[in-house]
Design a protein that fits this description.
182 residues, alpha+beta, five-stranded mixed beta sheet, 5 helices
Protein backbone atom coordinates (compact mmCIF):
# COMPACT_ATOMS: atom_id res chain seq x y z
CA UNK A 1 0.00 0.00 0.00
CA UNK A 2 3.03 2.32 0.04
CA UNK A 3 2.41 3.24 -3.60
CA UNK A 4 -1.08 4.49 -2.75
CA UNK A 5 0.35 6.83 -0.09
CA UNK A 6 2.74 8.38 -2.60
CA UNK A 7 0.10 8.87 -5.28
CA UNK A 8 -1.02 12.35 -6.15
CA UNK A 9 -4.44 13.40 -4.84
CA UNK A 10 -5.26 14.28 -8.47
CA UNK A 11 -3.66 11.21 -10.03
CA UNK A 12 -4.79 10.36 -13.56
CA UNK A 13 -2.94 7.53 -15.23
CA UNK A 14 -2.98 7.75 -19.03
CA UNK A 15 -2.28 4.70 -21.18
CA UNK A 16 0.30 5.84 -23.73
CA UNK A 17 0.75 2.52 -25.56
CA UNK A 18 -1.68 3.47 -28.35
CA UNK A 19 -2.35 7.19 -28.43
CA UNK A 20 -4.83 8.59 -30.96
CA UNK A 21 -3.22 10.48 -33.83
CA UNK A 22 -4.62 13.80 -32.55
CA UNK A 23 -3.61 12.95 -28.98
CA UNK A 24 -5.57 11.96 -25.88
CA UNK A 25 -7.38 14.87 -24.16
CA UNK A 26 -7.39 14.58 -20.36
CA UNK A 27 -9.46 16.68 -17.96
CA UNK A 28 -8.81 16.50 -14.22
CA UNK A 29 -11.25 18.41 -12.01
CA UNK A 30 -10.62 17.90 -8.31
CA UNK A 31 -13.55 17.06 -6.06
CA UNK A 32 -13.86 18.27 -2.46
CA UNK A 33 -11.77 15.40 -1.03
CA UNK A 34 -9.00 15.89 -3.59
CA UNK A 35 -8.95 19.67 -3.00
CA UNK A 36 -8.66 19.10 0.77
CA UNK A 37 -5.75 16.69 0.17
CA UNK A 38 -3.99 19.27 -2.05
CA UNK A 39 -4.50 21.99 0.58
CA UNK A 40 -2.99 19.75 3.26
CA UNK A 41 -0.06 18.73 1.06
CA UNK A 42 0.90 22.32 0.18
CA UNK A 43 0.07 23.97 3.55
CA UNK A 44 -2.78 25.99 2.05
CA UNK A 45 -5.84 27.18 3.96
CA UNK A 46 -7.99 25.84 1.13
CA UNK A 47 -8.19 24.96 -2.55
CA UNK A 48 -11.49 26.27 -3.90
CA UNK A 49 -11.04 24.90 -7.42
CA UNK A 50 -8.51 22.80 -9.33
CA UNK A 51 -8.68 21.95 -13.02
CA UNK A 52 -6.06 20.56 -15.39
CA UNK A 53 -6.72 20.34 -19.13
CA UNK A 54 -4.02 18.29 -20.84
CA UNK A 55 -3.26 16.73 -24.20
CA UNK A 56 -1.18 13.54 -24.20
CA UNK A 57 0.32 13.03 -27.67
CA UNK A 58 2.99 10.99 -29.41
CA UNK A 59 6.40 12.65 -29.66
CA UNK A 60 9.22 11.52 -31.94
CA UNK A 61 9.12 7.78 -32.52
CA UNK A 62 8.15 6.37 -29.13
CA UNK A 63 8.09 9.37 -26.83
CA UNK A 64 5.16 11.21 -25.29
CA UNK A 65 4.51 14.95 -25.04
CA UNK A 66 2.09 16.34 -22.46
CA UNK A 67 0.85 19.91 -22.88
CA UNK A 68 -1.95 21.94 -21.36
CA UNK A 69 -2.80 24.15 -18.37
CA UNK A 70 -3.49 23.79 -14.70
CA UNK A 71 -5.78 26.36 -13.09
CA UNK A 72 -6.71 26.68 -9.45
CA UNK A 73 -8.11 29.11 -6.91
CA UNK A 74 -6.36 28.81 -3.57
CA UNK A 75 -6.29 30.56 -0.19
CA UNK A 76 -3.03 30.87 1.72
CA UNK A 77 -2.08 32.44 5.05
CA UNK A 78 -0.31 35.82 4.77
CA UNK A 79 3.29 35.48 5.97
CA UNK A 80 2.95 38.74 7.94
CA UNK A 81 -0.57 38.77 9.38
CA UNK A 82 -1.63 35.10 8.91
CA UNK A 83 -4.86 36.45 7.40
CA UNK A 84 -6.29 34.59 4.36
CA UNK A 85 -4.86 35.61 0.97
CA UNK A 86 -6.64 34.48 -2.20
CA UNK A 87 -4.64 33.60 -5.31
CA UNK A 88 -5.39 32.31 -8.80
CA UNK A 89 -3.01 29.88 -10.46
CA UNK A 90 -2.96 29.61 -14.26
CA UNK A 91 0.14 27.67 -15.24
CA UNK A 92 1.11 26.12 -18.58
CA UNK A 93 2.07 22.43 -18.46
CA UNK A 94 4.61 21.02 -20.90
CA UNK A 95 6.71 17.89 -20.51
CA UNK A 96 8.40 15.25 -22.65
CA UNK A 97 8.74 11.56 -21.79
CA UNK A 98 10.80 8.75 -23.30
CA UNK A 99 10.42 5.04 -22.52
CA UNK A 100 13.18 3.70 -20.24
CA UNK A 101 14.21 1.19 -22.89
CA UNK A 102 14.67 3.87 -25.58
CA UNK A 103 18.25 4.59 -26.55
CA UNK A 104 17.98 8.28 -25.61
CA UNK A 105 16.20 7.41 -22.36
CA UNK A 106 18.97 4.95 -21.44
CA UNK A 107 22.00 6.93 -22.51
CA UNK A 108 20.70 10.47 -22.09
CA UNK A 109 23.30 13.16 -22.36
CA UNK A 110 26.14 11.26 -20.65
CA UNK A 111 26.09 8.31 -23.06
CA UNK A 112 26.47 10.41 -26.17
CA UNK A 113 22.77 10.54 -27.05
CA UNK A 114 21.79 13.85 -28.60
CA UNK A 115 18.66 15.79 -27.82
CA UNK A 116 18.26 19.33 -29.12
CA UNK A 117 16.35 21.48 -26.64
CA UNK A 118 14.94 24.95 -26.91
CA UNK A 119 15.99 27.06 -23.88
CA UNK A 120 12.46 28.47 -23.67
CA UNK A 121 10.85 25.09 -24.32
CA UNK A 122 10.18 22.13 -22.05
CA UNK A 123 12.79 20.54 -19.81
CA UNK A 124 14.79 17.55 -21.00
CA UNK A 125 12.70 14.41 -21.36
CA UNK A 126 11.92 12.25 -18.35
CA UNK A 127 11.72 8.49 -18.64
CA UNK A 128 8.74 6.27 -17.96
CA UNK A 129 8.31 2.52 -17.69
CA UNK A 130 5.44 0.39 -18.88
CA UNK A 131 2.55 1.80 -20.89
CA UNK A 132 1.31 4.50 -18.53
CA UNK A 133 2.17 8.00 -17.31
CA UNK A 134 0.48 9.71 -14.36
CA UNK A 135 -0.38 12.98 -16.10
CA UNK A 136 -2.47 14.08 -13.09
CA UNK A 137 0.64 13.97 -10.88
CA UNK A 138 2.56 15.88 -13.57
CA UNK A 139 -0.05 18.67 -13.58
CA UNK A 140 0.12 18.74 -9.76
CA UNK A 141 3.89 19.37 -9.95
CA UNK A 142 3.28 22.47 -12.09
CA UNK A 143 0.53 23.56 -9.64
CA UNK A 144 2.96 23.20 -6.70
CA UNK A 145 5.66 25.23 -8.44
CA UNK A 146 3.19 28.05 -9.19
CA UNK A 147 2.21 28.59 -5.54
CA UNK A 148 3.64 31.83 -4.09
CA UNK A 149 5.97 30.74 -1.25
CA UNK A 150 5.59 34.14 0.49
CA UNK A 151 1.96 35.27 0.15
CA UNK A 152 1.20 38.73 1.51
CA UNK A 153 -2.06 40.50 2.10
CA UNK A 154 -2.02 43.86 0.22
CA UNK A 155 -0.51 46.53 2.46
CA UNK A 156 1.03 44.06 4.94
CA UNK A 157 4.71 44.66 5.61
CA UNK A 158 7.40 43.46 7.95
CA UNK A 159 8.48 47.01 8.88
CA UNK A 160 9.06 47.84 12.52
CA UNK A 161 6.22 49.87 14.03
CA UNK A 162 6.66 53.64 13.77
CA UNK A 163 7.87 55.84 10.95
CA UNK A 164 10.83 57.39 12.81
CA UNK A 165 14.23 56.41 11.44
CA UNK A 166 16.15 54.26 13.92
CA UNK A 167 18.63 56.05 16.19
CA UNK A 168 22.18 56.00 14.79
CA UNK A 169 24.64 53.89 16.75
CA UNK A 170 27.97 55.36 17.94
CA UNK A 171 29.73 53.35 15.24
CA UNK A 172 27.50 54.80 12.51
CA UNK A 173 28.10 58.36 13.84
CA UNK A 174 31.89 57.86 13.81
CA UNK A 175 31.77 56.32 10.34
CA UNK A 176 29.72 59.26 9.07
CA UNK A 177 32.22 61.79 10.54
CA UNK A 178 35.17 59.92 9.02
CA UNK A 179 33.52 59.99 5.62
CA UNK A 180 32.87 63.71 6.02
CA UNK A 181 29.13 63.38 5.47
CA UNK A 182 26.61 65.08 7.65
Amino acid sequence: MKDAELRSPVSFVANVARLPQKGLPVLVEADQRQREALAAEYDLLSVESYRAELLVASWKRNGVKVTGRVEADITQACIVTLEPVSAHIDEPVEALFLPEQSKLGREGFEGGGEIILDADGPDSPETFSGDTIDVGALAEQFFGLAIDPYPRKPGASLDVAGDDPPEESEFQKKLRSLLGKS
